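agent> call fold_tool(seq_1)
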Amino acid sequence: MVDMGYVDTFRHFHPEQVKYSWWSYRFNARKNNAGWRIDYFFVTKDLMDKGLVKQAFIHNDVFGSDHCPVGLEIEI
């Protein structure tokens, strides 16, 4: 996706932060924070350049699934 010109919004706003959006149910993966970031919001570069994307976040403190919510704040 990035090679096609789209922007990974979470990485744009948090270039050094390590956060995951998915954990296996096996081996206490979530408890040990051994996960993967497999849920994304990609946007076109022009949306980023226009400042319409305000924030991207991962709510890894929300439980109830093997995934946690990911979000995007945009101005429309």
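agent> call fold_tool(seq_2)
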Amino acid sequence: MERKKLETNEPSRADIDQLQGFTMIEFGANWCGYCQAAQPIIAKALTNYPHIRHIKIEDGKGRRLGRSFAVKLWPTLILINNGKEIKRLVRPADAKAIIEALAEINV
């Protein structure tokens, strides 16, 4: 399975705020060990939620979108519904944490 790299062309915060439906935004860096280790658990958690849009954004110095969400550690997963943040996971340790968050918001 090919791993999708984090997107370097980030959308604007206004674009994110206008998204309809459920979206998981993943902030991280391609070279980040924590981010690389999280890829299989994120993929596993999302297998039962194919309707959730998953946007992977490369974060770092000078990256406005991550700053607008006050991202401090990677990976940070932000679950939004209709452009509003409803849940945040920072460095999830296993798929269970992500699955529980998804179940909690009833998606």
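agent> summarizing second result for user.
The chain has a mean pLDDT of 92. The chain has one domain: 13-104.
agent> awaiting next instruction.
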